[in-house]
Amino acid sequence: MPAVSRPLRLAAVTVTAGLISLCSAPSAFADKTNPGAGALGGGSGSETDTSASAAADGGKLSASVSGAIVFDRSDNGNGESTGALTSTTSWTPPACYYAPKYTPEELEAQMKQAWSSSAPSHEWILASQNYYVNGDPYKDFNKDKADEGYWWDSYVTEGREADPAAQDCDREQSFWVGKRDAPPADVPQAITPEMLAQLAYAEIRVPSTKVELAPEGTTKVNLPTWAWLDTTKFKPVSVTASVPILGLSATTTAEPLSVKIAPGTDDAVTYPASGECENLDGHIGQPYSQGKADQTPPCGVKYLRSSGDSSYKLQATITWKISWTSTTGQGGDLPNGTFGAGQDVVVQEIQAVNR
């Protein structure tokens, strides 16, 4: 999920009872957006996203140009029929996070540009100079420690700019983190392996859910219709999110767990009765073959009434099990996701003639 920087909070200087409240962040001077937002704010495609390289090169931290996180989508679902998962709960990936953004030289250039503009107040300039230059608490942008760490700042996940949760990353200043150090404990939004896994979740794309039916397209009243999935199309998919400059990555994997059959009418019976066909040994449902006409399908539907001159819209929704692993050895599960599609089924009534 590509990220965009938070807007600069330069001019928000409020004087109340002699106290000056300063809100600042140099982020806005690096305008970075990445096209291709999906349903959960992420881009689509199966390629490795190199637009956010996040690497130090000749004293420049490319994260300040295009974002801290790289997505490898080479094992993702692809094609026009793929779509984003919808969580089975109200859970959503992070709307904002903190990660490395500037080298000392970059931050110095950003702040000098801010100080020379007409936007900031004199109070803000003095406060930020004290913070970054004069030793309260940093001196000369930590340039003497340029090889030892990076300045961290906030990113807003693309597509979540209007989300109130994006305002949770509201620290007034960038902060320094050594390469061998953990980010401050009072920064809960600092990037972690699990957060990378959550952001990768939003990038996952899975195939459109069209079940195979027998009879295909047109069936008969009271005739059990077999349903199954072509398992070659519904294999596990995964996306890896990483912060190369930290040597940190997490891979989120989606595996088909079950398919829910909704016949499109109350005048129908599903097999099983719940309509939920589980993934058993890599198979969801069983293909129909000769000799099974008198058997009850393990996954399917029986329509009790003709569709007349139209058709029923059968809805097949796959539930995908989501898990993650990381380079730190951490891992676990995330909320299941679903993706479904409808298909037309014509149901005819067999006419019998009594003599």
Describe the structure.
By secondary structure, this protein is mainly beta. It is built from 4 helices and 24 strands. It has helices at 63-66, 104-116, 122-132, 193-201; strands at 3-5, 13-16, 19-22, 48-49, 56-57, 60-61, 70-72, 83-84, 86-87, 96-102, 149-157, 175-178, 205-206, 212-214, 218-220, 225-228, 237-243, 248-262, 268-271, 276-280, 283-284, 300-303, 312-326, 331-348. Strands 4, 7, 9, 15, 17, 18, 20, 21, 23 and 24 form a 10-stranded mixed sheet that branches. Strands 1, 10, 11 and 12 form a 4-stranded antiparallel sheet that branches. A 4-stranded antiparallel sheet has the order 14-16-22-19, with no helix packed on it. A hairpin with a 2-residue loop joins strand 5 and strand 6. The longest helix has 13 residues, at 104-116. It is elongated. Mean pLDDT is 82; it is low at 5-66.
